[in-house]
Amino acid sequence: MSLTVPPSLLRAAESGTVDDEAFVACVRDSLPYAWQTVSRVAAELESSEAEFADNVVPPPTEAERGQLLRALASDAIRSSLERHFGVKLAFQNCHRVAAFRLSAVDSDTYRRFVSVRGQLLNQSPELRDC
Q1: Is 35 inside any structural domain?
Q2: SS3 state of residue 89
């Protein structure tokens, strides 16, 4: 799954200067399902007192699953989304993405979520092919 890069953004990249917000807009427009999912968990986190908010609903289609995987597997995309929303993203499987408060990154809750144990406990036969 590739980004649809506007010519002006490509020219900026070729000249060496890329505006973070322009890149985030490219991600938003190219990967709308991923954008909606990350936006939603970030908004849920912001409107609560919790250390994190997460998505536990699988994507409705393989194309949408691909968008989420693309966004979270790319260091550049993921870090841009984190900066834009002011959160730390964590990802366990094809759909379980969580937004953590930056202050919670050193917490036991965060460490449990990103741990090997947390990964294993989040598996199920239904998710084997996701």
Answers
A1: yes
A2: strand
3-state secondary structure of 112: helix
CA distance 12 to 8: 6
pLDDT digits over 19-37, tens only? 999 999 999 999 999 999 9
Q: Is residue 43 assigned to a domain?
A: yes
Total domain count for the chain?
Answer: 1
Q: How far apart are CA 101 and CA 19, in angstroms?
A: 24
Q: What pTM, to 2 d.p., does this model score?
A: 0.86
Percent of the chain that is helix, strand, coil (3-state, to 5): 60, 10, 30
Which domain does 36 fall in, by range? 7-127
Contacts of 127 (CB under 8 A, 6+ apart): 58, 93, 94
Q: Rounded to an integer, what distance in angstroms lies between the CA atom of residue 97 and that of residue 37?
A: 8
1 part of a folded domain: no
